Amino acid sequence: MERKVFEQMAALDRNHWWFAARRRILDGLIERIVRPPAGARILEVGCGTGHNLAMLSRFGTIEASELDPVARELASERLGKPVEEAALPDLSMFPAASYDLIALLDVLEHVADDKASLAAIFERLKPGGALLVTVPANPWMWSAHDVAHHHHRRYRKREIAALARAAGFAIELLSPFNSLLFPPIAAARFIGRLRGDQNSDDAMPGPLVNRTLDTLFGLERSLIGRVPLPFGVSLVAVLRRPGPTARA
Predict the structure, then answer these.
(1) For residue 81, what are the contacts with CB-CB under 8 A and spacing of at least 6?
(2) What's the CA gap between 206 and 214, in Å, rounded?
(3) What is the CA radius of gyration of the chain?
(4) Class of domain 3-240
(5) What angle do CA 99, 126, 120 make, to 5 degrees?
(6) Which residues in 66-78 are b (16+ Cβ under 10 Å) and which e?
(7) Which residue in 166, 170, 172, 160 sits closest to 119, CA to CA?
(8) Predicted pLDDT at 162
(9) With 80 as the cut, is the pLDDT of residue 9 above it?
(10) CB-based contacts of 183-189 (< 8 A; 24+ apart in sequence)
């Protein structure tokens, strides 16, 4: 991604509604569905500036990778140890069959070879280990946001399901999310495309709007995996490498 995108991300990711509510949602999914064992070994692939590392550390010992040197430096400071340089699908610097949980959070859309990337992640999970993955949904929502973030694609559910099964994963959860705010976001993206807007939509809104959006998005923490959500701005999946799963 562009340097200015990482700088924006580092400045906003503590309090911006999208980052804050999303962390709470993912935390809930790890707790309820992934259920990693006590002292889990966890890897975040493509950790960006490291805004998810503190949340993930609640469940075990964290390692991380990031390709961009600016983001990797910021993430290393947050993690308190070096973040590895890695470019998917090459994860050869990480040991095979070693991780209880791998997080791939809004990364797969940046990778040219998504099929090989999921296969490489599969090989680094322990039998019974889980991959938590999020991706942007709905190719028709393509906008200046995707261009600024250097996305290769947006996904349909069936495409993620096919990639997961091809890599050998069992699908425990595959759901849209950011569903409650889907109508206004979709409308804004569509209108922006009609107008030919060239700007991303990453700016911090005013405090009242930010709190409102954080609350609305955050409500999905108790919905995903319990209530079928028919649509959303993104997709989230829990994919399991078959085998015995150690529980906490």
Answers:
(1) none
(2) 12
(3) 17
(4) alpha beta
(5) 75
(6) bbbeebbbbbbeb
(7) 166
(8) 98
(9) no
(10) 185/233, 186/138, 186/141, 186/233, 189/141, 189/143, 189/145
pLDDT at 27: 98
Report the side by side order of strands in the sheet with 40-45. 60-65, 40-45, 99-105, 125-136, 234-240, 170-177
Q: How far apart are the first and last CA of the chain?
A: 37
Contacts of 146 (CB under 8 A, 6+ apart): 109, 136, 154
d(CA 209, CA 171): 36
Q: How many residues does the chain have?
A: 248
Closest CA to 146 of 78, 52, 32, 234: 234
Q: What angle is formed at CA 60 by the lines to CA 54 and CA 64, rounded to 5 degrees?
A: 60
Closest CA to 237 of 137, 144, 145, 150: 137
pLDDT surpassing 80 at residue 118: yes
Residue 149 amino acid letter: H
Looking at residue 37, the DSSP 8-state letter turns out to be P
Condensed to tens digits (0 to 9), the pLDDT of residues 20-38 reads: 999 999 999 999 999 999 9
**Cα dihedral sign for 49, 52, 57, 63?**
negative
Q: How far, in Å, CA of 228 to CA of 233, rounded?
A: 15
Q: Where are the alpha helices (DSSP H) in the chain?
A: 3-12, 17-29, 53-57, 69-79, 114-124, 144-148, 157-167, 182-195, 207-218
Q: pTM of the predicted model, to two decimals? A: 0.91
List the domain boundaries for the chain. 3-240
Q: What gap in Å lies between CA 88 and CA 131, rounded to an integer?
A: 15
